[in-house]
Amino acid sequence: MSLEQRITDAEGAIAAAKATDAATVEAFRVAMLGRHGVVTNLLDELKQVPPEQKRQWGQRLNQLKNAARERWEELKAATESLPAGSTGPATDVTRPAFSGAPGSLHPISIVRQRITGIFARIGYTVSEGPEVEDDRHNFGALNFPPEHPARDMQDTFFVDGPGEHALRTHTSSVQVRVMESGKPPFRTVSPGRVYRNEAISARAHCMFHQVEGLYVDKGVSFAELKGTLDYFAKSLFGPEVNIRMRPSYFPFTEPSAEVDMSCTICGGKGCTVCKHSGWVEIMGCGMVDPAVLTNCGIDPEVYSGFAFGMGVERIAQLLYRVPDLRLYWENDVRFLEQFSADAFHG
């Protein structure tokens, strides 16, 4: 190997040297500048160079020797600044700050937190329960009759056969557990995943998210229910929106209602989003059926209450105009990164 090539290799080794601890630094010094080191051996070979080339090669070797010594001193200083017991190099505080894109919450998580945050401001707690539920908490205590379609395997994912355990079809099962846990008053919201045996499409999925609310106390009225939901709609969508209630039916509430909100796209004038009606449905609600209170050990002669429930994906669709529910489950970073700024609002 030529002298030029050996000097080039030595320069590369000097540049690539790293300090992990004092022993590594000392090994570098010995390998380069020790009695039998690379630089020392090259200086010894200078005697064999023709006289007319000694000046040229002497300058190169002196530069190599100085570079090796400077690098050794740098590595030595770095290890001496390490904290006691450390095995890695010291942090270089002069390095540029990491500028990678920050992570963000999933849009469903963002909307769920905004919903629960709105109700927290008026005294609602957050309750959670198991996703695999028994028949009593998912159906029986909530006044679902034995012949109700929701108990059919075409609508529900049963774990060990009808009438036993199933993946919960709503978070109302959490409300049953709350009411069984003690004496009123109760004021809580129950967010979580729920499951329905449905074909996956742009408008439906077999797994989605709900936030359900419950308020039970003495003298609770339907007027309080409407005022609470009007406050929620204005807090989330803006003070200009209005709500209306349409009579409906749910096994666990009586009377029951569907809640519509004035369309935020057209201002109530009519568009494709609201199907030219000026209104979009956002949730169901009603006064807790006395039979449900009785099933949970609460005297309906003393206490009354209301309940409501909404789909988080539905609310997110109204906020973000996402046309296909399947986008929420594909984990496409290009889709998710659009919501990073919104994670810090609401």
Characterization of the model:
The protein is of the alpha+beta class and 346 residues long. The protein has two domains: 3-80; 107-344, Bira Bifunctional Protein, Domain 2 (BirA Bifunctional Protein, domain 2, 2-Layer Sandwich). It has helices at 3-16, 22-33, 38-45, 51-80, 107-120, 135-138, 172-180, 222-237, 290-295, 312-320, 333-336; strands spanning 125-126, 132-134, 165-167, 186-195, 207-217, 243-250, 253-262, 279-288, 304-311. A hairpin with a 2-residue loop joins strand 6 (243-250) and strand 7. Helix 2 (22-33) packs antiparallel against helix 4. The protein is elongated, with a radius of gyration of 35 Å. The chain starts with a helix and ends in a 10-residue tail after the last helix.
Largest sheet: 7 strands, mixed
Q: What is the CATH C level class of the largest domain, in words?
A: Alpha Beta
Neighbour order of strands in the largest sheet: 1-4-5-9-8-7-6
Helix and strand content put the structural class at: alpha+beta
Mean pLDDT: 86
Poorly predicted parts: none
The proportion of residues in beta strands is 15-25%
CATH-assigned homologous superfamily of the largest domain: Bira Bifunctional Protein, Domain 2
List the keywords.
11 helices, BirA Bifunctional Protein, domain 2, 9 strands, 19% strand, 346 residues, two-stranded antiparallel sheet
Strands, helices and their partners?
Layout: H1 3-16, H2 22-33, H3 38-45, H4 51-80, H5 107-120, E1 125-126, E2 132-134, H6 135-138, E3 165-167, H7 172-180, E4 186-195, E5 207-217, H8 222-237, E6 243-250, E7 253-262, E8 279-288, H9 290-295, E9 304-311, H10 312-320, H11 333-336
Parallel strand pairs: 1-4
Antiparallel strand pairs: 2-3, 4-5, 5-9, 6-7, 7-8, 8-9
Helix pairs in contact: 1-4, 2-4, 3-4, 5-10
